[in-house]
Design a protein that fits this description.
2 helices, five-stranded antiparallel sheet, 9 strands
Length: about 190
């Protein structure tokens, strides 16, 4: 009799833990000025959400730009700078949303001023179609020639108050991973046969 009750309590606890808001931190390298990182996150219920970059590091890295899209990939907000109040550096991007509705969202991170071209993610970004320039070689508009700043490719993004979050793999990375898994499957079948 104790077992089903214990199982039910554990299941209820696991379910309630899954619904709790959490804090996430992601980081990586932006190789080219044309790169855009996609991060999907969701809210199980309406919540206060904070999102910001803290990678500028006194000019060692690029000036980041964030764009927030809803589940249908319609642009909700463009976020350039404003990270100071949330713990980022001078050029970091940040935003506090007092009440964001439950649902799915996509956040994009790129180098400023690679702005969305329209009101939908499918409209693309300003630098689409340009020849990619390595961040270390690119003179970003806020670049100070006297400081040789904004030449690093490191980015870091923090999300507070969301239910789930993950970086969306680039199509090329996803294709490479799938090809590798397929190759492992073929090798496994040959060994088994």
């Amino acid at each position: 009799m104790l077992r089903p009750r214990l199982t039910g309590l554990l299941l209820a606890a696991a379910t309630s833990l899954g619904a709790q808001a959490a804090d996430y931190s992601f980081s990586g390298q932006l190789r080219y000025h044309t790169d855009v990182v996609h991060i999907d996150f969701s809210l199980d219920s309406a919540a206060q959400v904070q999102l910001w970059t803290d990678s500028w590091q006194d000019g060692l890295n690029f000036d980041p730009l964030l764009a927030l899209f809803d589940g249908g990939h319609a642009l909700l907000q463009l976020i350039d700078d404003g990270g100071d109040s949330l713990g980022g550096g001078y050029f970091d991007a940040g935003l506090g949303l007092p009440q964001l509705a439950a649902g799915h969202y996509r956040l994009t991170l790129g180098a400023s001023p690679n702005n969305p071209l329209g009101q939908h993610l499918s409209d693309g970004f300003e630098f689409d179609g340009q020849t990619p320039i390595a961040i270390a070689d690119w003179n970003q508009p806020g670049y100070d020639i006297n400081k040789n700043d904004q030449k690093g490719s490191f980015w870091q993004l923090r999300l507070n108050g969301v239910s789930q979050a993950a970086v969306v793999p680039e199509p090329g990375s996803l294709a490479l991973m799938l090809a590798g898994l397929l190759g492992l499957g073929v090798v496994g079948r040959r060994r088994a046969g």
